[in-house]
Amino acid sequence: MISLRLWRTLPIERRPTYGWLLLLACLVMLSAPKSGYAENSPPLKIVAFGTSLTARGGWQPALETRLAACLQRPVKIESVAKSGETSLWALTQIDRVVAEQPDIVLIEFYANDAALQRFVSLAQSRKDIGDILDQLRQRLPQARIIVMAMNPFSGLRGLIRPFVGSYISAHRAEAEKRGLEFVDHRPNWQRLTPEDLAAAIPDGAHPLPDIASEIIVPELVKHIAGGNCRE
């Protein structure tokens, strides 16, 4: 192989090899993924499993983007969620969650269980979430299972859920009894002023998607990534 010193003494027309190498290096640099991670990296798969707070939440795209930037790998979130449903419905949807073979499952099903008109007792809700968690642990042994408490309720939506705190405590207890994770988003919502909170959740139950992203996503990124965030 010709040395760099000798190559420099050659006429321009006799330097094709190094010229092509330089051109190739430039092309590689220009074509490198701008996302900061290799495009063929396996995605981190997440299933968001819940009620309208997930189905209508709108925070999933922001979580994909922020978590991908943090972990330097693609993130794909699928939702298995339906407005108005309870933990009884969730028990019928386990196959859909498992079929996605997720790395992480985010779960919230206390909110409609706690609504008086749904007639799901606290004991039934606790049994249901326990059964859900047991099935997911058995069928997705490598997955992280994270139970969540979402935003506060107000107005009529709050009045029909007078014992919602007890339902959250029951779901939390079932998760912790199994050594599973629990994330409570309510403290971050409660840092807002009453006026800002009312504006962020105008119907008393469903946050505006952009505000939900601002409140929910940083907490989930911190919890999922821990000290591995490289943003």
UniProtKB/TrEMBL annotation:
<dbReference type="InterPro" id="IPR036514">
    <property type="entry name" value="SGNH_hydro_sf"/>
</dbReference>
<dbReference type="InterPro" id="IPR051532">
    <property type="entry name" value="Ester_Hydrolysis_Enzymes"/>
</dbReference>
<dbReference type="InterPro" id="IPR001087">
    <property type="entry name" value="GDSL"/>
</dbReference>
<dbReference type="GO" id="GO:0016788">
    <property type="term" value="F:hydrolase activity, acting on ester bonds"/>
</dbReference>
<protein>
    <submittedName>
        <fullName>Lipolytic protein G-D-S-L family</fullName>
    </submittedName>
</protein>
<dbReference type="Pfam" id="PF00657">
    <property type="entry name" value="Lipase_GDSL"/>
</dbReference>
